[in-house]
Diaminopimelate epimerase (Aneurinibacillus thermoaerophilus), 278 residues
Amino acid sequence: MNFTKMNGLGNDFIIVAHFETLPENASDMARVMCDRHFGIGADGLVFVLPSDKADVCMRIINADGSEAEQCGNAVRCVAKYAYDHGIARKEALTVETLAGIQRVWLTVENEKVSLVKVDMGAPILYGPSIPVAIDREQVIDHPIEAEGKTFSFTGVSMGNPHAVIFVDNALDFDVEKWGSLLEKHSLFPNKANIEFVSVTSPQEVEMRVWERGCGQTFACGTGACATVVAGALTGRTNRRALVHLKGGDLEIEWAETDDHVYMIGPAEEVFTGTWCKR
Ligand SMILES: N[C@@H](CCC[C@H](N)C(=O)O)C(=O)O
């Protein structure tokens, strides 16, 4: 089986593009192929499928075999893949995901996509729809406790669930310890991606992320979107901010005009290969 290895700011994916629909054993494939010692190694396995509603359809399976509704970095990679590999050779295209249809605009240099802008849609803030087990229109700076320590989180769904926690210094925060505990907290019925964020200025933040289903990653596109939404809702940031991640920067804007969140960032193809393990 041929595959392509891609990443968005170090959030890395195995892309497979020769299936018509999601295979039944997609979870098992993801677990084995994403293994960093016995497989190819990646944060997720991404299926690029035909779509009757958009130019291309994307399904993403986390490294632990769970399926995610949405993935910002993978949408950028899929858009680049679709353009560079001739599936949809146009600079404005659409990507179908479990969370809806994303509009995408490409910057093309020397015949290859270098930068991708994505309309990530409107954030979902109503507790039960995120889902967060708190019946409120918005879950803002709400206490959450783990191992005797209390944090405050803001709940945001960008199609997938996020809990954004503002901390003094995200760069030396113990993401592994607190992320792994909070991901599975009883307040999150479908688990959650956990962002630890420190605010440098109203237009700049540092973010570290513990992702549901794969652990700490170098970047999370939906997490960066959720972070700017939480920052703006709580008055900590403007609606437009630069999010510095371990793997690089994303430009995020929560537009006032349509309530949608727009994300701009790179996508990169690294190598292709053939998977031969059974
Ligand atoms: N890395 C992603 C999000 C991938 C899915 C996530 N782990 C989940 O289970 O929701 C991004 O760039 O948005």
Observations:
- The mean pLDDT is 98.
